[in-house]
Amino acid sequence: MRPGLALLVAMLLTVGGLAVLVLLIPAAPMTGDGQYYIQFVRNGLQHGASSWHERRLLGPLIVRALPMDAQPGFFVLTSVSLGVTAVLTWAAARELVHNEARALVAIPLLFGTWVVAPNLREYGLVDPLAWAFVAGVWWATVRRQWYVAAVVAAVGVVAKEIVVLAAVAAAAAAFDRQKPWQTAVVAGPALLVALGLTVFFPGSGSDGVAYVFKWVRDGLFSNGVARAGFLLFASYAALWLLIPLGWSSLPGYLQRAGAVFLAAAVALPLVGSPERMEEAIFPLVITCALLATRTWDPRLVWLLALACVVFVARIGGDARIPTPVAWAGLAVALALIAWCYATVLGFRRAPAPAPAAGPPGTTVPSP
């Protein structure tokens, strides 16, 4: 497939997938933080609900510049941001799998995570814009374009401070004993922007320690440990299980970046809803899923992706899909991955065939 045609197919797949999800998922932009961002724009970027909302200026600035009310403006921002995220995720995937057709599966795999469906439902958030920047940083990281990664991350922090994580992952990938300064150059701009926003917008968000303790005490386990564990699992559902299989196929520099994302995956639930915070590590999950399934029949990979989409769209986006169908989708995805593990482990444990016996007194097989 020619590059130009592949890009066109990727864009059509992205637009079509988003359109289907928009039709299936009932909108609820005024729930949760979405209502505060919408009101923040309507108030002329004054009187944010907290200093956290006031620091995340880029999304509200874009929405305010659109010739429409804040609510439909955030819908446009969310849709375009998720589309950009999907295309950039595909662009990074094609650099690694070297197969245009297989790289396209990155788009439905992304749609089968918490990154897309819940954000289409609560489209008043700034998270989708941040994920577009995270995808851009990952694409630059895969291509080892360190200065591009640094600039994209620095701008992305103005969308949401979580983009710092992508900058740190890129910095880890950029580590070079011959150029020790390179790591600081990649991560430094994003960290400085985050620090600057904290200085210019102090307030409730500045007491991070108190916030973490309050969240862990009153939020994380408020509905029980089992519920928190389920939400953590649901963020990527069956795709979590493909990380170990795909990890060994990551180039060394991406394994360093991946280690940053994995460490963050442990810590992120301590600062917010597990299923929403884990969205930030989607570059690693999608990449490992693609690498783990690169030897599968392409039809099985598409089946895996679509099964994940059905499950997450229903559970995370309240899509108009029967609940039994959603759980059946999860069962199909788990069955495919179980088959993959059984195949891999069976291959590794299979004894090597014994060499044919040679003439007496020799160790060379008979011709």
Task: Classify the helix fraction into a percent range.
Answer: 55-70%
Largest sheet: none
**Category by helix and strand content:** mainly alpha
Question: Can you tell me the overall shape?
Answer: globular
Layout: helices, strands, pairs:
Layout: H1 3-24, H2 34-42, H3 51-55, H4 58-65, H5 70-97, H6 100-103, H7 106-111, H8 117-121, H9 127-142, H10 146-156, H11 163-173, H12 181-200, H13 208-220, H14 225-234, H15 243-247, H16 252-267, H17 274-277, H18 282-292, H19 298-317, H20 323-349
Helix pairs in contact: 1-5, 2-4, 4-5, 5-9, 5-18, 9-10, 9-11, 10-11, 10-12, 11-12, 11-16, 19-20
How would you characterize the overall build of this protein?
The structure is a single chain. With 367 residues, this protein is mainly α. The protein has one domain. Helix 11 runs antiparallel to helix 16. The protein is globular, with a radius of gyration of 22 Å. The termini are far apart. The model has no long low-confidence stretch (mean pLDDT 87).
